[in-house]
Fold these 3 entries.
Entry 1:
Amino acid sequence: MRKWLLVPVLFLAFILSGCFSDPVQEDLLVYLNEDLAEISHLENEAISAYESVTGANYTDDYILYETMLLDVIPTYRDFLNELEAITVKTDEIREAHEMYIEAVNLQNDAFIKIVTALEEYDRGKIEEANQMLSDARKLIRDYNYKIESLAEKHNVELSDPVDGDVL
């Protein structure tokens, strides 16, 4: 007779456990481990290509121009399109995701401005593009802080960044 009593109690516990799930936690896990993981290679490729011809790796304007036009911009545009196609379920993750989209759009615009500046030999536009890149980096930092905060609040353990991953 006790066996029959145990089955409904276990069934009720199973049903109730579903009521206590955290939709933000679930959404964050899918967002980071599936959605972003599937497209992060595009961002990494574009940024690596950009870094290969800027800063200490800069050789001349032609190499920079060609790399931006043929490698960086098309790959980063693909990343942006994939990023914008991601749909999330919760307002908290959506807010963070929109921050990331804003940063990526700004960085994409800066890349395009660099090409325009090189075509027009306009140093002023290069300075504008550099400011845009700086602003985009700040937005990405803000996004990372937001994701870290959400992860902490919703008991999601983040791994350390590897090869330029988002976090």
Note: Residues 123-153 form the longest helix (31 residues).
Entry 2:
Amino acid sequence: MNEAKPPYWEQLDPDARSVARFLAETLKKPVRELGAEVARQVFATPRPEQPLTPLDRVECLTLATRSGELRARLYHPDGPPAAGPRPVLVYLHGGGFVLGTLDGVDEVCRAIAARSGWAVFSLEYRLAPENPYPAALDDCFDAFFWLRRAASVLGIDPEAIAVGGDSAGGNLAAALCLKLRDLGLAQPVSQVLVYPAVDGAFAAPSWTDFAEAPLLTSADARWFWDQYIGSDRGEAVDQYAAPMRAESLRNLPPALVLTAEVDPLRDDAEAYAERLRRDGVEVASVRCAGVFHGFFTEVGVFAKTDEAISRVALHLRGLAEAGPGS
């Protein structure tokens, strides 16, 4: 880092400061200047040969959908389920709708499965700008119903499917719940939203306060958004692209919303949690102090990652103990 520290520097914990220094030294250009193809190469995360959380069974799946074949992985926690088929969390990776792979969230999916006792279904949806909105959401919609149809073969409970994701994946999870509600279709039992991108207005104070935050700057976030919905859409964006624009958030599944303290998206995500609460949705909202956007999937790097995964696992275990319809 330069000697002149940015204003947010004192808010970062030691782990976050260390990673921020590393990013400043290694990323010579902002993501928006790299472009999609080069950025994918820079941020590619190989699947570890020896994962931090070994599991006896990880299935590689191919889904036949309206758009073609999609890849997915199903992580089974070790040991037999307590009774009957397992509940499952559909996990949607982040990456600004432009980046992100199954390998990049392999460790976090393993950790959630091991700690919660839930299976975790990780989806490789289509990416922008090659496949702009609503392609990714269409893939998530199709995958949700593919999973319900295939549940008995996979050993999971079709009536106990939660959805979740980080950043762009959090957007897709929230949008999927909205779309299912509006169509009068089966809803997930919960939504787990990790610093979700829910509003395309870029107007909340955190967009200015953390405009130059590590990993994701405000300018980069705008670039990602333009790749996803197109730079000419403006106010024409609908609620399934930006869930904050929904007229009502009533009758949506209970939610866990996790945010990072030093993150341009923080205020939007927390405002979304508050809107859910006002509209009668059961919500737990947790701000993770001292960390920045992207920390959740960095297993073994941030101490706060371990805490956040444990919080998600606790939420899922609580759902399982409460039972269907609770």
Note: The first helix runs from residue 14 to 26.
Entry 3:
Amino acid sequence: MSAIPVAEDVLDADVAVITLDEAANRLGVPVNKVRQMVRDGHLIALQRGGEHCVPEDFIAEGALVKGLVGTLTVLSDAGFERAEMLDWLFTEDESLPGGTPINALRSNRGTEVKRRAQASAL
């Protein structure tokens, strides 16, 4: 099995993260499934406190936030590295409802977020 790709921790210290085990627990899947999601680019893992973690905001109501996977795909296709994707998702944008792309996704505004992700690639 291949190693888990880990992004540099570019997030503010106040951004909550959870371990891969906790993410698996919240998603109701085995931890190996979460590791596969990271390898497939459906989640971004980072190292904090000596453990592999994912941002807590990526999971809501027992599932990945709607639109997250598609947004990560758009950003990846645009050439963003994983750390750049994290930075983009958690950077304040006054014109977005919720303030950041991840908060807009959590508010079911995935179409607008993906549109901005595509525009960022240009």
Note: The beta strands are 6-7, 17-19, 45-48, 51-55, 59-60, 63-64.
